[in-house]
């Protein structure tokens, strides 16, 4: 496993990490989650991603229970959570980053995890109704209180991230260290263009999500939606439409040929392509079976095979 610094911080995270979005609580119970976490750990993964909103808080509880049963030393793993959507109805508990919500939400997350602190804390989306200054102060106070070690953002615009960083710089507060954007062969603009100046200007690190475009780049949807996939879950109708989009699936078929020539799966190729970007600190992978975790980790072996010539070929197919 390769370990990269999280932006300009001193923290090192495994270049491939493991996240619980969709699977924990909806597809996996604690026992199955424990198996997947163990498989990731055995491959060298040290970063595990979560969020308050995943399965309405159940994902945090399951991950906390599984890690406790695995008996890992707290100093050896990095765990994250994200806040914005909220868990209870109320004007100050849904879709907000105001101080009241954030200071309450972190305590709830820690209780569900069974932890004293998380390593990374993200603002899960921007909140246009709360002044960024209020959010920055609250997040900085959470770090100062020892309830998180670093804070960052997820799916914020470059202007919003820079504004938050400048406020923190002006008031000598804890600055945002990382951003968690979607990044894959079909979703690239934000990482490759919008954030381009932030890497050098403020040392922004990236913990990217959806390297397989919600499964599209696994190739398993080329012939339709297989039984038991996440696209069959209630509430994921929009995902089904994206996964069966004809033009993208034609590109997937061409990428399969590239993967075959490299003697790897399409999933491994897609994950390795994301990790090839030097601005990406870690690529968050997901799985509902330990065998899938092992397959995803095989992307590490593919990374060395992605030379400029192969990358250019992939570019021609995906663009």
Which architecture of the domain at 3-215 and 279-287 does the CATH hierarchy give at level 2? Alpha-Beta Barrel
Number of helical segments with 4 or more residues: 13
**What is the strand content?**
5-15%
C-alpha geometry: globular
CATH fold-level assignment of the domain at 3-215 and 279-287: TIM Barrel
Separation, N- and C-terminal Cα atoms: 30 Å
- What's the CATH first level of the domain at 3-215 and 279-287? Alpha Beta
Order of strands across the main sheet: 3-4-5-6-7-8-9-10
Q: Classify the helix fraction into a percent range.
A: 40-55%
**What is the string of helix and strand elements?**
EEEHEHEHEHEHEHHEHHHEHHH
Mean pLDDT: 94
Low-confidence stretches: none
Biggest pleated-sheet summary: 8 strands, parallel, barrel
**Main structural class:** alpha/beta
Radius of gyration: 19 Å
The CATH H-level superfamily of the domain at 3-215 and 279-287 is NADP-dependent oxidoreductase domain
Describe this structure in words.
The structure is a single chain. This protein is α/β, with parallel strands linked by helices and 319 residues long. It has a domain at 3-215 and 279-287: NADP-dependent oxidoreductase domain (TIM Barrel, Alpha-Beta Barrel). The chain is built from 13 helices and ten strands. The strands form two sheets. The protein has an eight-stranded parallel β-barrel with strand order 3-4-5-6-7-8-9-10, surrounded by five helices. Strands 1-2 form a two-stranded antiparallel sheet. Helix 9 (246-261) packs antiparallel against helix 13 (308-318). The mean pLDDT is 94.
């Amino acid at each position: 496993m390769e370990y990269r610094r999280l932006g300009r911080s001193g923290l090192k995270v495994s270049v491939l990490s493991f996240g619980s979005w969709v699977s924990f609580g909806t597809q996996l119970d604690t026992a199955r989650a424990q198996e997947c976490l163990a498989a990731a750990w055995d491959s060298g993964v040290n970063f595990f991603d979560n969020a308050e909103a995943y399965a309405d808080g159940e994902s945090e509880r399951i991950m906390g229970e599984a890690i406790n049963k695995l008996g890992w030393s707290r100093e050896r793993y990095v765990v994250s959570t994200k806040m914005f959507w909220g868990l209870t109805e109320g004007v100050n508990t849904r879709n907000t980053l105001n101080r009241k919500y954030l200071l309450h939400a972190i305590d709830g997350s820690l209780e569900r995890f069974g932890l004293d602190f998380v390593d990374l804390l993200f603002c899960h989306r921007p909140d246009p109704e709360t002044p960024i200054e209020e959010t920055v102060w609250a997040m900085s106070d959470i770090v100062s209180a020892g309830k998180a070690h670093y804070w960052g953002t997820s799916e914020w615009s470059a202007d919003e991230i820079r504004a938050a960083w400048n406020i923190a710089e002006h008031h000598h507060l804890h600055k945002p260290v990382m951003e968690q954007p979607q990044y894959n062969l079909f979703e690239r603009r934000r990482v490759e263009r919008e954030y381009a100046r932030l890497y050098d200007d403020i040392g922004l690190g990236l913990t990217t999500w959806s390297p397989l475009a919600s499964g599209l780049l696994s190739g398993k949807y080329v012939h339709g939606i297989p039984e038991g996939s996440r696209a069959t879950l209630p509430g994921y109708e929009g995902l089904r439409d994206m996964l069966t989009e004809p033009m993208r699936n034609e590109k997937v078929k061409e990428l399969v040929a590239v993967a075959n020539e490299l003697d790897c799966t399409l999933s491994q190729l897609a994950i390795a392509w994301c990790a090839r970007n030097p601005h990406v600190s870690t690529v968050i992978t997901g799985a509902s079976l330990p065998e899938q975790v092992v397959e995803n980790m095989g992307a590490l072996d593919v990374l060395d095979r992605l030379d400029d010539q192969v990358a250019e070929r992939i570019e021609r197919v995906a663009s």
